[in-house]
């Protein structure tokens, strides 16, 4: 199993902290978000990681050069259109590398080791993390669950069967191929400003995506300064 970390965004909601530092290199405790993610992936047995970069990408490359033990595990894919595209385009740029079983993780996510290990230890299948206990936040992804399957993932999902969805996926090769094929069709139509999950929804009925439920575990995206302060409080 390998991993794809999506870290090409500009982190505009974290200004002024991200004015001169990419979001993935912001410190949470004694380590950056990116270092935490890569070390955690290594801890659960994944030592081949693709990281998509964009905003201030040279700083990520320089940071990797300063951490050779981490650098040897990482391939970077640079999205030179980061300012005008979403991570759907970053995923498309990595298409030639995405073969086999993958974990896909947003590059601003802090996750508890035991939870990621649960995901890795599941029987082979396609999974996404779902918190069915917490109230679904307005700004984050929700998943519509029906008959034990994930039917749709989007920010605007609501109503009965809608739960908070943490963007951490484990996908078998055929499922990833379906998603990437859909992404290719979106990119071909110039639809590069939307979420990659929009392309996923177009084929989600074909890949048998299952919810992996969790509660009382640290699993959060760092989108705002409030999020960053909360994460630092949890981990410091």
Secondary-structure arrangement, i.e. CATH architecture? Alpha-Beta Complex
Low-confidence stretches: none
CATH top level assignment: Alpha Beta
Arithmetic mean pLDDT: 93
Return the CATH topology: Spore Coat Polysaccharide Biosynthesis Protein SpsA, Chain A
Report the count of strand segments: 13
Amount of helix: 25-40%
How is the biggest beta sheet arranged? 9 strands, mixed
Structural class: alpha/beta
Number of helices: 8
Instruction: Determine Rg (CA atoms, Å).
Output: 17 Å
- The total domain count is 1
Our measurement of the CA-to-CA distance between the termini, rounded to an integer number of angstroms, reads 30 Å
Q: Beta-strand percentage?
A: 25-35%
CATH superfamily placement: Spore Coat Polysaccharide Biosynthesis Protein SpsA, Chain A
Shape: globular
What order do the helices and strands follow? EEEHEHHEHEEHEEEEHHEEH
């Amino acid at each position: 199993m390998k991993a794809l970390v999506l870290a090409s965004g500009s982190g505009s909601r974290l200004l002024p902290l991200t004015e001169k530092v990419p979001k993935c290199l912001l410190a949470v405790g004694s380590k950056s978000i990116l270092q935490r993610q890569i070390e955690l992936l290594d801890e659960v047995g994944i030592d081949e990681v693709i990281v998509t970069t964009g905003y201030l990408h040279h700083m990520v490359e320089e940071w990797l050069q300063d951490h050779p033990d981490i650098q040897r595990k990482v391939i970077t894919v640079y999205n030179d259109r980061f300012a005008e595209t979403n991570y759907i385009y970053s995923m498309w740029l990595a298409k030639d590398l995405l073969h086999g079983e993958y974990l896909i993780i947003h590059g601003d996510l802090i996750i508890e080791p035991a939870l990621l290990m649960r995901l890795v230890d599941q029987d082979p299948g396609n999974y996404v993390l779902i918190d069915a206990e917490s109230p679904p936040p307005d700004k984050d992804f929700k998943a519509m669950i029906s008959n034990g399957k994930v039917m749709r993932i989007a920010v605007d999902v609501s109503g009965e069967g809608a739960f908070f969805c943490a963007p951490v996926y484990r996908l078998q090769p055929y499922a990833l191929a379906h998603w990437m094929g859909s992404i290719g069709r979106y990119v071909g139509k110039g639809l590069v400003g939307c979420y990659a999950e929009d392309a996923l929804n177009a084929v989600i009925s074909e890949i048998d995506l299952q919810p992996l439920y969790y509660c009382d575990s640290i699993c959060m995206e760092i989108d705002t300064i409030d999020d960053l302060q909360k994460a630092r409080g949890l981990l410091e």
